[in-house]
Amino acid sequence: MDGVIELQDLKTMLQLETTDQDGLLNLIIKNTTKALRFKLGLNAGKEFPQELDYIVLEVCVRRYNRLKNEGMASYSQEGESITFKSDDFDDFLSESINLRWGAKTDSDLIICNNSI
User: Fold this and answer.
1) Can you give the residue ranges of every domain in the chain?
2) DSSP string of the chain?
3) Tens-digit pLDDT profile for residues 39-66
């Protein structure tokens, strides 16, 4: 599996300085990358488009931040309310993706997808 994002980048976003959770973070990175590859229709042999790395990083942060509250649809207590979306990639649905292997418009398509 190609390294789409660096562990250190995720740790910086989460403000983590120890190595205590590196195994968990690597698993989150791996599963998030696989999920996005599946949504984009990228086979294992296809290179992951570098332009989409930010999506993996943002979704990894979301998934880490909701640990121990997995699957929570709604929670409310004394004025506090928490709700999670059913799909971590929903915020990126409106982004149109049309990536090619070369800089020309007639280069072979990597992805031609109007939503993730």
Assistant:
1) 7-85
2) ----S-HHHHHHHHT--SSTTHHHHHHHHHHHHHHHHHHHT--TTSPPPGGGHHHHHHHHHHHHHTTTSTT---EEETTEEE---S-TTGGGTT--EEEESSSSTTSPEEEEES--
3) 888 887 888 888 889 999 999 998 898 8
